[in-house]
């Protein structure tokens, strides 16, 4: 299986705030790497063979690549917007394909059943019609006009509301979610999932948020998001097959799976197949 298309992408490899000179030993797509701060306080990433790897510091994280990225790290304009609180949620290790982790983040239908009384609740289980497209100019998957009733849409929410979502996939192992901001209805809260592929069936997931919330304690914001993702982890680690099937005949989709279908089609188009299963077994 060729890996070159995904080798040349950017990946999160650590939280910049947690780096020191002793370094963080980790892995990227099966290769051991080390992430540390140099004498000038900048991040540096070293491959298993001792070579210096490309580095970017953005969205609270250190990013690197085993190859030669053809484009810069994708923009999140809200990361530069005054007044937002930026939340480094931490890392969760998940025994699943990095592509499975992103696909699960895109799934709306599981909210009432996995995140009961937080992101969803029975009998509010219907996924209303929404729009999905692959935006050719940006080369990204987008889902818009997504609406879902939620008992507690955010830590700052005081009661149940119908929440509007937009989902964006700018890179094979990253997704950006825009959702209704309870304190500022004219703005969007931004919740991201940055996934570091350790192996084809193992990944570190780094959630990050850019919110308008001046009241909630930072610890509570972090715990709220960690609670959500830990509920997802048990589901992800029990999915069969562990790799993400790209053949449309291998799993039966429903109307609620339009974003997943577009994501898989986009992955296949670009040969983003590290962590994917291409044919039925």
Automatic annotation (TrEMBL):
What is the source species? Rhizobium johnstonii (strain DSM 114642 / LMG 32736 / 3841)
Q: Does the keyword Oxidoreductase apply?
A: yes
Task: Write down the InterPro entries for this protein, in alphabetical order.
Answer: Cholesterol_7-desaturase, VanA_C_cat
**Membrane-spanning intervals of the chain:** none
Q: Which GO terms describe its molecular function?
A: oxidoreductase activity
Keyword list (alphabetical) reads:
Oxidoreductase, Plasmid
Q: Which Pfam families match?
A: VanA_C
Give the domain of life: Bacteria
| Protein name (Swiss-Prot/TrEMBL) | Vanillate O-demethylase oxygenase-like C-terminal catalytic domain-containing protein
Instruction: Name all Vanillate O-demethylase oxygenase-like C-terminal catalytic domain ranges.
Output: 94-269
């Amino acid at each position: 299986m060729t890996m070159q298309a995904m080798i040349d992408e950017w990946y999160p490899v650590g939280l910049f705030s947690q780096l020191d000179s002793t370094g963080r030993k980790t892995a990227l797509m099966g290769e051991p790497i080390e992430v540390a701060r140099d004498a000038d306080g900048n991040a540096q990433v070293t491959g298993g063979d001792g070579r210096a790897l490309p580095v970017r510091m953005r969205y609270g994280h250190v990013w690197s690549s085993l190859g030669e990225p053809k484009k810069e790290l994708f923009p999140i304009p809200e990361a530069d917007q005054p007044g937002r609180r930026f939340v480094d949620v931490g890392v969760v290790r998940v025994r699943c394909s990095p592509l499975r982790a992103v696909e699960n983040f895109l799934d709306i239908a599981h909210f009432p059943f996995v995140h009961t009384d937080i992101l969803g609740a029975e009998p509010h289980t219907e996924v209303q019609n929404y729009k999905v497209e692959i935006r050719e100019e940006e080369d990204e998957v987008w889902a818009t006009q997504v609406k879902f009733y939620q008992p507690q849409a955010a830590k700052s929410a005081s009661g149940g509301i119908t929440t509007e979502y937009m989902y964006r996939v700018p890179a094979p192992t990253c997704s950006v979610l825009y959702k209704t901001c309870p304190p500022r209805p004219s703005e969007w809260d931004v919740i991201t999932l940055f996934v570091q592929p350790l192996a084809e069936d193992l990944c570190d997931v780094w959630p990050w948020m850019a919110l308008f919330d001046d009241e909630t304690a930072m610890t509570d914001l972090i715990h709220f998001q960690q609670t959500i993702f830990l509920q997802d982890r048990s589901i992800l680690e029990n999915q069969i097959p562990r790799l993400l099937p790209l053949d449309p005949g291998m799993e039966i989709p429903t109307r609620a799976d339009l974003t997943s279908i577009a994501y898989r089609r986009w992955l296949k188009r670009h040969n983003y197949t590290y962590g994917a299963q291409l044919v039925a077994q």
